């Protein structure tokens, strides 16, 4: 309803403005003054255009207000919509659909298109959107060319179709599937740094204790020795653990792509490029940082560089090595492992294990289409882990703190883009990563010596 009001008011404003401009252009071309009838018509058209402009602005305000209320209601389960549902239109933070779908529905992008006469940006027209922010999604990653244009089959020209289907090829060969984010604990922060406690070691001395039979107090063990408990004193054993205060600094991950003004007018194409290039690229780099960031500069402290992660050496074969790692997490890490993360090449090695008669141990492809479970635990394939190396752990002990939701911004205010009719579309996110208990993870050597 609100989007329709915005569209109708905008079209009415443009219609009246164009009617007045047509008369003014004709008078200027003929080099004469307005006739009385023309002057009256122009004044009436301008009055109607101003009135429509006011209705357009009010409709946009109503739409944005509704979007905010609906989104709030969906988050708290209010009467406006059931909890978890999403408003159909409006603000950049609306839920529902992919990042690209929400971006092209957002108030920021709708307002940007509203400045394009007839839905197309003129060659000399400025392009500048407000940032539209969204919560990141775990999506299959895809890719795209460095520059999408509106001319030529080698670029985006073949994609600008009369029925607005937009990009048809998802370029899936350029990006890898992303899965690591779904394993770890999801958190949020409103600061640029996150302080948390990391458990370095745990000693559990819990034991049955007999009832006290004496009131005697501990006796001195000498100047250097500890107190000596009296026999029959009923003393309870003390367990210990050591903690480290760690600071995770929020880092910015960002990249951008170039599009022409013609191609950015194609809603379907913009949606596809945001989903298949910008958001996918952010998630791919995020995955690399969570696993192998070295903690220097703007890099996360990744799991591969954190001190205290256990090491599981190659033992006999792949299956034995993986099983011994499960035991190590249980007995030493005092944790319940939730999954393996291994390189796709190593996942293939596991899946192709067979007995002497050529029968696969895992019984063929998994029902889910991914890697088969290993010792009853899910297997996540990720190229963020090097070949010949695997990780097992209680991934609930790793936390990803979102500082800012993913944001998409479009502008021609970059270098000489304005005079070249190009638009920079920027995607960025800010987050921090930390591991609460390194011993809850083990690094597996999957290569025989």
UniProtKB/TrEMBL annotation:
Record's compositionally biased regions (Gly residues): 89-98
Record's subcellular location: Virion
A Pfam family it matches: Phage_capsid
Domain Phage capsid-like C-terminal, residue spans: 156-444
Main localisation: virion
SUPFAM superfamilies: Major capsid protein gp5
Official protein name in the record: Phage major capsid protein
Biological source species: Streptomyces hazeniae
């Amino acid at each position: 309803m609100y989007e329709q009001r915005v569209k109708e008011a905008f079209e009415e404003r443009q219609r009246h403005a164009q009617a007045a401009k047509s008369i003014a252009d004709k008078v200027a071309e003929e080099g004469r003054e307005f006739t009385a009838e023309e002057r009256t018509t122009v004044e009436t058209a301008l009055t109607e255009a101003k009135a429509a402009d006011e209705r357009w602005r009010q409709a946009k305000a109503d739409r944005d207000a509704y979007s905010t209320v609906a989104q709030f209601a969906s988050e708290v389960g209010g009467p406006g919509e059931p909890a978890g549902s999403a408003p159909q239109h409006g603000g950049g933070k609306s839920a529902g659909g992919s990042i690209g779908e929400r971006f092209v529905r957002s108030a920021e992008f709708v307002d940007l298109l509203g400045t394009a006469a007839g839905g197309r940006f003129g060659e000399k027209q400025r392009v500048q959107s407000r940032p539209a922010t969204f919560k990141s999604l775990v999506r299959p990653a895809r890719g795209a060319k460095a520059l999408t244009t509106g001319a030529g089959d080698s670029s985006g020209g073949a994609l600008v179709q009369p029925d607005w289907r937009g990009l048809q090829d998802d370029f899936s060969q350029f990006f890898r599937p992303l899965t690591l984010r779904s394993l770890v604990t999801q958190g949020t922060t409103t600061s640029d740094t996150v302080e948390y406690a990391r458990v370095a070691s745990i000693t559990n001395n819990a034991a049955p204790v007999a009832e006290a039979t004496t009131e005697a107090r501990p006796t001195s063990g000498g100047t250097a020795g500890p107190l000596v408990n009296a026999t029959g004193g009923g003393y309870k054993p003390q367990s210990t653990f050591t903690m480290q205060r760690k600071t995770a600094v929020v880092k910015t991950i960002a990249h951008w792509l170039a599009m022409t003004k013609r191609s950015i007018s194609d809603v379907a194409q913009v949606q596809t490029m945001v989903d298949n290039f910008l958001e996918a690229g952010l998630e791919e780099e995020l995955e690399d940082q969570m696993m192998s960031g070295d903690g220097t500069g703007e890099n996360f402290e990744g799991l591969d560089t954190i001190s205290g992660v256990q090491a599981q050496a190659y033992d006999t074969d792949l299956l034995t090595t993986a099983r011994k790692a499960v035991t190590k997490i249980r007995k030493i890490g005092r944790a319940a492992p939730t999954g393996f993360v291994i390189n796709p090449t190593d996942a293939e090695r596991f899946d192709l294990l067979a007995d002497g008669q050529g029968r696969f141990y895992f019984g063929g492809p998994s029902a889910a289409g991914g890697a088969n479970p290993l010792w009853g635990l899910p297997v996540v394939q990720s190229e963020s882990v090097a070949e010949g190396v695997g990780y097992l752990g209680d991934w609930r002990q790793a936390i990803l703190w979102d500082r800012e939701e993913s944001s998409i911004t479009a502008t021609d205010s970059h270098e000489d883009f304005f005079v070249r009719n190009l638009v920079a579309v920027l995607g960025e996110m800010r987050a921090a990563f930390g591991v609460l208990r390194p011993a809850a993870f083990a690094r597996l050597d999957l290569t025989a010596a």
